[in-house]
Design a protein that fits this description.
The N and C termini lie close together (about 10 Å). The protein is rod-shaped and about 55 Å long. About 0% of the residues are buried. The chain is mainly alpha-helical. The protein has one domain (about 1-70). The protein has 2 helices and no strands. Helix 1 (about 1-20) packs antiparallel against helix 2 (about 35-70). The chain has helices spanning about 1-20, 35-70.
Amino acid sequence: MLRKSMLAMTIMLSLSMSFQVCASPSSLSSGISSDTNTQEYKNWNDNVEKQIEIMDNQIEGNIAALEKYN
């Protein structure tokens, strides 16, 4: 049981270290037009959502792998 817990902890730590949220859009603090700011924020938000989806898929795969050991 301890070995499974350690494996699960290792997997979660590796995922959390590999997941990095993009820095916020640079134009939001500048004098660029509101429309440009809005579009850049939407693009940034889409990228973050894609990263979260990838991470969710990795977690699901790791959970499936852990269940094989049970």
